[in-house]
């Protein structure tokens, strides 16, 4: 087997004796030189971490072996594959193993989509884990550097994505790192817990001690008792001299300075520092932060390929999904038929968008609800229909030999179904549908990609 | 009794009564009466002065440090601390509980540690405890507290004494006058109704502290600033070196302050409205053992330690005479006279004559007690209804005082020949041994 091409980012090339390596002094220089099989980043810890992250963001280096720093204590930068080995042969050896595993991934197909990249990264690194990193500037305080790096320009809701992967059984949970509470409105963890008046929710409350006169039993706020530096009961005018024998402090209530109400316990309110939404503490979304690794099932899927039975476990898997490529091919074929044969080759394309999929999945009954919704979809569609998912929340249905009427009936049934669920369970799945009929709604020169992009725009 | 009454006319006829009168009357008139009248006049003066002056609000609010000497009081310390937090005084109050022998007195240390000053409820109260792990005695506790005190006024208080909420305000008022180096506060008995002994002590505290010191204070002749409750100007106290080792450090300090009186126009007021509540011994035995220490200490201080300052040049004439009279003569000499006369009477006089004399003396002293009691009740007491209940102890009080005077002889002799002050429990022996001997 050939040996890998190695790029080395260093400020001091003299310290390396390898002549076959390609040296670069800056990240840009390295990128311009071309693609390497292995990259060595010989910088100090802070710079190395930044460079590794930037390299991982680059699609060419998503999966590449990257060694960074010369720290032998095991504190290699996040997303790197460890510190630079002292023995150059070790690099070649590691690269061979990596290459071997990558070639086994998904029956030899190089990953294309986001989740394929993540699974491939975990697959090529047997010890690899999706590690949450705490960062105070991050709205949720924790983020997964790998997911951020691979997300590219497409924003990925890390929580939703991980939830989905868990449900499909491809990832497994590591030990719990932390539990955070999030604003239900903007998902920020930057929350302020304040005690407020239970009546008017004003912030301006103050503790107000009360006194109890033993002589007559009068109880009133302390300042009613103080008169010219003396403590007199306002009711019986007894001079109160000594705590415990003349008076005591039976209660300590709060007084709201806005509405003057008097209460025992203040209410705790949570204020989001980002969007200023006010919640009660039990309204907050709870999120468990943990590392994730590839599960047995996930490894199986990586080995056996993504198409076919492997998807059987997922919610949408029961819909006989075809891969996105296959679907576009089918759609192209349908478009061609419709163009050629006109009215006799009717066909319809329906797009369903589950806009709040992540939220629905995080609710207890949401998953069950989604399952039954998908069951109903399965019952509604015919054997000849084809389904595919291009993104987590986008479900495409290709209905051959179905005219406008038939398609509208299907859409009606789905909306009807969703309304029923909402009324029964109070859980809202934000289902948006859009559909077109071929060839009537087809624009000139439009192929499957353009058509799908057009519909995708309509539901977003 | 009837027999005694029968003897009376006989004695009268034989001119015996005249003789007796001549013997006894000077005793009373020359010694007891002037002092009683002085106290009474002082009380009346204080009362009328109080009636005439209009209360005024002062902006003088210095920071106050309270040194609370704690030993084996346990959780009672928390009552003391709480009563100090509860003070109505608007200025800052620093609480310095000094736990002596904190290793041994774990319960007390724990109580001090557990006490929390709620900063919202008590915004001007600061707790700064001091733990003296090794026992060093009361004086070392007070001086340790003094060295850490940051207040302009320092209070020396006992860990088992709690205070009325007007206490600090009433005491601090006097320090506005720069000629006041110290103020004495009033003490009441907290466990008044526990036993006969505590009732008698309640009455004694009421008469000899609350009432008499008002009278004495009015003439600037306060005999003592109680160790359980006194206030001092910190700068002055530091100037004279704080508390001195040996027992009865309170009377010692009072005498040392007074030794400036001959040269400077200083005064020590007594504040009857600043009240501390303290526990007194429950049993007569406990009471007499306490007095053995206290009264013995009088001899030690007046005769041994402060002999040289007993001159009008040092104390000023007024305090010299007063100390000579009330301190030296009443406390040290009079008990011997009383015991001497009683023993002589028992030997020389027939029993019935003694009985008559006893009744006569009893009646005179009862009258004197009654007058002082009424003056205190009507003019001084801030809790008259409480003190009214003590009236039932009045008939027994002269007898109680007679025995107390008699006991005074033993106390003095114990100090004279056995140096009883060195046996005090106020400091450990290894500290006392190093103190200067007088």
TrEMBL record, chain A:
Residue ranges constituting the Thaumarchaeal output domain according to the UniProt record: 109-294
Domain of life: Bacteria
Annotated Gene3D superfamilies: 3.30.70.270
A Pfam family assignment: TackOD1
SUPFAM superfamilies noted in UniProt: Nucleotide cyclase
Name of the protein this chain belongs to: Diguanylate cyclase
Organism: Vreelandella halophila
UniProtKB/TrEMBL annotation, chain B:
Molecular functions per Gene Ontology: glycosyltransferase activity
Keywords: Glycosyltransferase, Membrane, Transferase, Transmembrane, Transmembrane helix
Gene3D superfamilies, per the entry: Spore Coat Polysaccharide Biosynthesis Protein SpsA, Chain A
One Pfam family per UniProt: Glyco_tranf_2_3
TM regions (residue ranges): 20-47, 320-341, 353-378, 390-410
Record CDD domains: CESA_like
Superkingdom per UniProt: Bacteria
PANTHER family: POLY-BETA-1,6-N-ACETYL-D-GLUCOSAMINE SYNTHASE
Record family assignment: Belongs to the glycosyltransferase 2 family.
Name by which UniProt lists this protein: Glycosyltransferase
The organism of origin for this protein: Vreelandella halophila
């Amino acid at each position: 087997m050939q040996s890998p091409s190695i790029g080395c980012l260093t400020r001091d090339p003299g310290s390396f004796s390898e002549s076959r390596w390609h040296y670069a002094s800056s990240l840009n220089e390295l990128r311009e030189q071309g693609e390497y099989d292995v990259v060595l980043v010989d910088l100090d810890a802070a710079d190395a971490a930044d460079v590794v992250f930037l390299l991982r963001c680059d699609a060419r280096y998503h999966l590449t072996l990257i060694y960074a720093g010369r720290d032998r204590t095991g504190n290699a930068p996040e997303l790197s594959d460890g510190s630079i080995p002292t023995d150059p042969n070790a690099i070649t050896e590691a690269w061979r193993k990596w290459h071997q595993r990558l070639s086994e991934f998904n029956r030899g197909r190089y990953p294309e989509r986001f989740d394929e990249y993540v699974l491939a990264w975990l697959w090529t690194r047997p010890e690899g884990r999706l590690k949450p990193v705490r960062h105070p500037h991050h709205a949720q305080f924790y983020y997964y550097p790998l997911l951020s790096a691979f997300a590219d320009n497409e924003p990925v809701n890390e929580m939703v994505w991980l939830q989905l992967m868990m449900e499909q059984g491809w990832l497994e949970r590591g030990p719990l790192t932390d539990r955070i509470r999030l604003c239900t409105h903007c998902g920020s963890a930057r929350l302020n817990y304040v005690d407020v008046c239970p009546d008017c929710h004003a912030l301006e409350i103050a503790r107000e001690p009360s006194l109890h006169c033993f002589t007559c039993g009068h109880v009133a706020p302390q300042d009613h008792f103080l008169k010219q530096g003396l403590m007199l009961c306002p009711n019986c005018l007894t001079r109160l001299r000594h705590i415990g024998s003349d008076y005591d402090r039976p209660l300590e209530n709060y007084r709201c300075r806005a509405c003057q109400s008097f209460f025992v316990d203040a209410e705790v309110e949570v204020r989001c520092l980002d969007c200023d939404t006010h919640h009660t503490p039990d309204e907050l979304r709870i999120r468990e932060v943990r590392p994730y690794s590839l599960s047995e099932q996930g490894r199986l899927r990586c080995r056996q390929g993504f198409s076919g039975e492997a998807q059987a476990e997922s919610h949408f898997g029961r819909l006989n999904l075809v891969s996105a490529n296959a679907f576009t091919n089918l759609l192209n074929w349908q478009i061609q038929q419709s163009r050629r044969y006109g009215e006799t080759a009717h066909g319809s394309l329906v797009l369903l968008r589950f806009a709040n999929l992540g939220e629905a999945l995080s609710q207890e009954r949401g998953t069950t609800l989604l399952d039954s919704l998908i069951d109903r979809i399965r019952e509604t569609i015919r054997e000849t229909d084809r389904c595919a998912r291009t993104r987590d929340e986008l479900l495409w249905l290709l209905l051959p030999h179905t005219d406008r009427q038939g398609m509208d009936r299907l859409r009606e049934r789905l909306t009807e179904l969703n309304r029923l669920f909402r009324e029964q369970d109070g859980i809202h799945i934000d289902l948006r549908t859009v559909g077109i009929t071929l060839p009537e709604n087809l624009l000139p020169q439009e192929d499957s990609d353009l058509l799908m992009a057009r519909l995708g725009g309509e539901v977003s | 009794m009837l027999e005694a009454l029968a003897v009376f006319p006989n004695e009268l006829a034989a001119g015996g009564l005249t003789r007796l009168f001549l013997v006894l009357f000077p005793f009373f008139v020359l010694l007891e009466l002037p002092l009683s009248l002085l106290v009474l006049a002082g009380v009346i003066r204080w009362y009328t002065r109080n009636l005439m002056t209009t209360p005024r609000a002062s902006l003088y609010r210095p920071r106050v440090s309270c040194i609370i000497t704690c030993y084996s009081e346990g959780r009672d310390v928390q009552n003391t601390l709480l009563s100090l937090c509860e003070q109505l005084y608007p200025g800052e109050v620093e609480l310095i509980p000094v736990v002596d022998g904190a290793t041994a007195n774990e319960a007390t240390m724990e109580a001090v540690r557990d006490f929390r000053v709620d900063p919202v409820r008590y915004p001007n109260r600061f707790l700064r405890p001091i733990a003296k792990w090794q026992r060093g005695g009361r004086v070392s506790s007070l001086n340790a507290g003094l060295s850490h005190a940051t207040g302009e006024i320092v209070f020396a208080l006992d860990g088992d004494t709690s205070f009325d909420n007007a206490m600090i305000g009433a005491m601090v008022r006097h320090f506005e006058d720069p000629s006041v180096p110290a103020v004495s506060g009033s003490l009441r008995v907290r466990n008044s109704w526990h036993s006969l002994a505590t009732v008698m002590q309640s009455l004694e505290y009421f008469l000899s502290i609350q009432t008499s010191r008002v009278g004495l204070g009015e003439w600037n002749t306060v005999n003592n600033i109680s160790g359980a409750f006194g206030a001092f100007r910190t700068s002055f106290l530091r100037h004279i070196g704080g508390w001195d080792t040996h027992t009865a450090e309170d009377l010692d300090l009072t005498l040392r302050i007074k030794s400036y009186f001959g040269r400077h126009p200083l005064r020590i007021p007594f504040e009857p409205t600043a009240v501390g509540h303290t526990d007194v011994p429950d049993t007569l035995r406990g009471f007499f053992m306490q007095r053995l220490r206290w009264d013995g200490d009088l001899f030690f201080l007046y005769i041994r330690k402060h002999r040289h300052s007993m001159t009008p040049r040092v104390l000023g004439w007024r305090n010299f005479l007063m100390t000579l009279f009330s301190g030296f003569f009443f406390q040290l000499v009079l008990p011997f006279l009383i015991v001497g006369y009683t023993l002589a009477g028992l030997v020389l006089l027939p029993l019935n004559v003694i009985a008559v004399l006893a009744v006569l003396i009893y009646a005179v002293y009862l009258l004197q007690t009654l007058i002082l009691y009424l003056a205190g009740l009507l003019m001084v007491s801030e809790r008259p209804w409480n003190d009214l209940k003590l009236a039932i102890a009045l008939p027994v009080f002269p007898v109680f005082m007679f025995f107390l005077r008699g006991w005074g002889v033993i106390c003095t002799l114990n100090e004279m020949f056995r140096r009883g002050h060195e046996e005090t429990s106020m400091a450990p022996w290894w500290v006392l041994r190093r103190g200067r001997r007088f």
